[in-house]
Amino acid sequence: MKTKKRWALTMMAGVMTFGLAACGGGASETSKPAETSSYPEKPIVVVAPSGAGGGWDKTARSVAKVAAETKLVEQTMTVENKPGGGGAVFMAEYATKDTKDDYKLFVNSPPILINNLKKEGNSPYGYKDTTPLAQLLKDYGAIVVPADSKYNDLKTLMEDLKANPENFTVAGGSAPGSMDHLVAVLPAFKAGVDPKQMKYVSYDGGGEAIAALLGGNADVIATDASSVGEYVKAGKIKVLAVSAPERLTGDLQEVPTMKEQGIDAEFIIWRGVFGPKDMSEEAFKFWSEKLKALSESEEWKKELETNAWVGEYKNADEFKSYLEEQEKLITELLTALGMQK
Asked: Which of 117, 75, 7, 55 lies closest to 283, judged by CA?
């Protein structure tokens, strides 16, 4: 017993010595001047995992633009488009090859959850393979038809779609089972349409989906509400409904919500910035501070207004908790539609 007691005391003394040494080391490091932080030392890339013209692309470019205008980030920030699979192609590379690349960030939204949770076209990678840094804004879905379409309201479109789903080509800027598909499917599902009978064609980004609509390759598209304003002003399209809880402002202020038209459907498209899974503490601290400051700047508020976005900032911890909640909700939605993995 004495031997065991002596051994235990020796171990405790060792642990206390280690703890004091660690505390002493921390105090010594924190006493160093802040300017010893060297990050960032080279240009930073912000990836939009889609083609040009969509919500991810616009968000990434706005973040880079405001970071430069406000001088919050002195290093050059460039935006790269990496389309494919509604973001799944980029994630496969990022989650395996760029896990420690502090100089490559990316913008994403619900597809980072949907692609990981859906049955078809499933991606093995999701937000848990990244470091969520901040949510910056939220957007909503829009149901859009060409300007010369005979449809002027969502209810009539849904009635005809229900009667003859094979006669319609519905398109979106993300893969089947992903965000635009869900925006299209939601009102149809609520109106009694069998989602499995809908013909959905996917494109790499909202810009390509709108091009398909204007080129006569789709009858209706589901896309981000913020990406259609210029086409509405040019008289090229009609927006039949938005998935917001209430009417939006700006170019879409006359567009009724889905709920206003008797279809109980709502879909929020949040957007945030992510870093690599094994991001350094130095880089994490830098971006946590800079993205918060960016979200509070007047320049960012102007970007929100210009793009018809709604600002909604969440810090890293809040954002991660929100993603956990969203994961449960999207699983329920995909299950209801028979699309869960």
From this structure: 75
Residue 100, φ and ψ in degrees, nearest 5: -120, 15
**Are residues 144 and 238 in contact, defined by beta-carbon separation less than 8 angstroms?**
yes
Residue 280 CB neighbours (<10 A): 14
Predicted model pTM: 0.76
pLDDT averaged over every residue in the chain = 87
Contact 326, 106 (CB under 8 A): no
Contact partners, residue 337, CB within 8 Å, separation at least 6:
182, 185, 189, 195
| Tens-place pLDDT, residues 214-231 | 999 999 999 989 889 899
Report how far apart the first and last C-alpha atoms of the chain are (Å, whole number).
57
Within 13 Å, how many C-alpha atoms sit on residue 162's CB side? 14
Per-residue pLDDT of 29-77, as tens digits, reads 444 444 567 999 999 999 999 888 888 999 999 999 999 999 999 999 9
pLDDT above 90 (res 259):
yes
Task: Check residues 157 and 336 and name the one with the higher pLDDT.
Answer: 157
Q: Which two tokens stand for residue 11?
A: 């171990």
Beta partners for 275? 131
C-alpha span between 3 and 6 (Å, rounded): 5
- Which sign, positive or negative, has the C-alpha torsion 258, 235, 207, 300? negative
To the nearest whole percent, how much of the chain has pLDDT over 90? Answer: 66
